[in-house]
Amino acid sequence: LWTIIHYLVRGQLGWFGMTIACTVPGYAAQLLSILWFRADGRPPGCCLLTLHFLQFGLWKRYWDVLRMAAKMGGSARAGEVVMQYGDVCVLQLLEALLQALPHLLLQSYVIVAESPCLHPGVSAGLSLLSLAWALVSYSRFSCLLKPGHLCPPAVAILCLLLWRTGMLGTRVLALVLFARLYSFWVFAVAGVHWLLMSFWLVAQQTDIVAQPCRWRLFNCLVGAVYIFCYVNVRPGPSKHRVAVFYAVSTQNLQYSTWM
Fold this sequence. Notes:
Number of domains: 2
Strand content: under 5%
Number of strands: 0
Low-confidence stretches: none
InterPro entries: XK-rel, XK-related_scramblase
Transmembrane segments: 15-37, 150-178, 184-203, 215-233
Subcellular location: Cell membrane; Membrane
Membrane topology: Multi-pass membrane protein
Distance between the termini: 37 Å
Number of helices: 11
Protein name: XK-related protein
Oligomer: single chain
Radius of gyration: 20 Å
């Protein structure tokens, strides 16, 4: 909101409109949250709908998880808290990829294309932190689902957050600088990476989505996410898949530098 007002006051209507447009895809996560509330037997009332309209629906879910955990403590129903926490993590990751990531790209490009300014810089930094935390929360939930795995300690969470932040920051900066120098050629480089990652996901035969049409759509969407970061979508050790991802990313970066 601070950045939107900043562009409006300065008369930069182009950046103003594009910044507002970046907030619209985030409502997909809010809509999905409402549908999940309804599926859980909790028909959303006027207050809950208003919170989701103001994009506070995930904060409401976080509050519910904290309250449920405080009531249950170490009871046998702790697994229910984990599943509720998993819903929040998935929704938060979806919101970050659909809203925080485009906003981060846009504000980073504004900083590079024009003179550096406080408002876009702070907004881009917060979007980067939000995206990194969403990925860390998803990884933490994946660890909690594995049998015999305990909750990662705070130091491990902090290291994972720093790694995600550094990886995403450098990747976004490289793409923004390339777009500043070569304009629309960045779409060609990103498109090649997206196709390679999508075909790679198809070759892995991921079984998260069963229906063929939705399975193809899922692979295409995750392939687009792989332009920026790696998200593990298969059970089991992932070190070989991570190695392949970084090998392809490095090759694309070298190709971009050569261009």
